[in-house]
Structure formats: structure tokens, C-alpha cells
């Protein structure tokens, strides 16, 4: 193709942004994306990991770096077992930061640990004050930066555990118009970053792709895979995702049989 390096021919790659301002994504046999939306997949890494990276990986990278160079800092990853959270933990560690993750369950705790978290804090059944106390017991001076998956639910906790001049990178919220502890954030001079992955700059995306590949080469094992579905079972794959898919990611494989467990995924409760 005109304008694409011949070095790409035959190269193992992963891609991102296939559905950014485009009608289709990667649930297909073939997909075409700009060369700038392609990262190199290390030889020892399964293609399934390449399928998992995409937007979660790019978002996780940006979420860690939005507050500046994370090297030597304490980075709190709220929701460390999620798709973005796992990548954020791996990138924080790769970048020289200390990664503290929050999760809900023991199964999620294992996922965050495998991603490389230095400390994992389970928050199920804890009050907001107890969560704050647990976090500050680990980082008494406060977090330098917070990667936030639930801005509306966690902003009050984030404000209390951030150090003076700290920062937040929020990429999701349940409530579209959340209440914000404005004055406490002001008095701490907190920098709040709202992240929309479709509109990261080309430079930010390119650096994220390089660092994610380097993290895999450096020993990050990538994502746990919960289910592998054949392409023709894409509807079952969607049901597995909607049902929560505990234990890892859901992927589609070409010319492959779905595993027996995947074929029996129940319809999620409505």
C-alpha cells in the first residue's frame, strides 16, 4: 500500500483505534487501519495479547502519563483488575513508578498482582474512610497520581489520598454529572485530566504503542484470557462480556473452535 513501510510486510503486529471515527472494529477476519495505529507484537507474545491491548492499553498508558513523568512516583490505580487498570499497572511499573491498585475481590486481586502491582488493596465491604485509611497506610505521604475508573464514586476518596500538587486521570464515570469536592481539590492544587482515547494526540498514541510493546518484551505477561470464542460465536462473546466475564478478557479467534465452557455462557440477567 502506498505510504506504508515495506518493513511491515509479514511483521507480527497489534492495532488500536479500528473503530475510532470509523464504522467497524476488529471483530472481523480482516481490518485496515493507518500504519500509525499499529504496534509491533514481540515474537514470544501470543496474538491473543495483541487483541487485548488496543484501546485499553493506549488508555492505560495515557492515564499513567497524563500527570507527567511517573518515574519514582506513587501511582494509585483504582480498578486495577479492569482492562485499562491492568495496562496502567504494567505501564506504571515499566515507567519506574510504584503501583498501588484497588480491586473488589480476591480473584481481581490475583489479576492486579500478575499485572505487577506493588500493593493490592481489596475494597469490598469497606467504607470510604476505611479505604482512605488502607491507602494512606501504604503511602503515608499520599499518592502522586491516581488512575481513575469511576470518577463519580471515587473522587472524594481520591482527593483525600492525593498529596499536595497531585494529579488524577479519569477515563470513566457512572454518573454523567458527578459532584466534585471543588475546594479540597483547589487547596491541594490537584490537576484533573479527563481522558477520551479517540482524541489522544498521534504522538501520545505512538509513544503508548512503543511502551506497551517494550513492557511485553520486558516481562509483562499481558492479560489473563477468560474465554476464547470462534468468530461465528461473536454473539456469545458479547453475552460473556455483558455478564462480567470474571477471570479475564474475552477474545475472538479465527478458524478456531470455541471452548466448551464458552459455549455454555448463560444469558446475563436483565
Word description of this protein:
The chain is built from nine helices and ten strands. It has two domains: 6-54 and 203-210 and 217-263, no CATH class; 56-200, Alpha-Beta Complex (Quinone Oxidoreductase, Chain A, domain 1), CATH 3.90.180.10. The chain has 270 residues and is an alpha/beta fold.
Structure described in brief:
The protein is of the alpha/beta class and 270 residues long. The protein has helices at 47-65, 83-94, 106-115, 128-138, 151-161, 182-187, 202-217, 234-242, 260-263, and strands at 13-15, 38-40, 74-78, 98-103, 119-122, 143-148, 162-170, 191-194, 225-230, 249-253.
SSE layout and pairings?
Elements: E1 13-15, E2 38-40, H1 47-65, E3 74-78, H2 83-94, E4 98-103, H3 106-115, E5 119-122, H4 128-138, E6 143-148, H5 151-161, E7 162-170, H6 182-187, E8 191-194, H7 202-217, E9 225-230, H8 234-242, E10 249-253, H9 260-263
Parallel strand pairs: 3-4, 3-6, 4-5, 6-7, 7-8, 9-10
Antiparallel strand pairs: 1-2
Helix pairs in contact: 1-2, 1-7, 2-7, 4-5
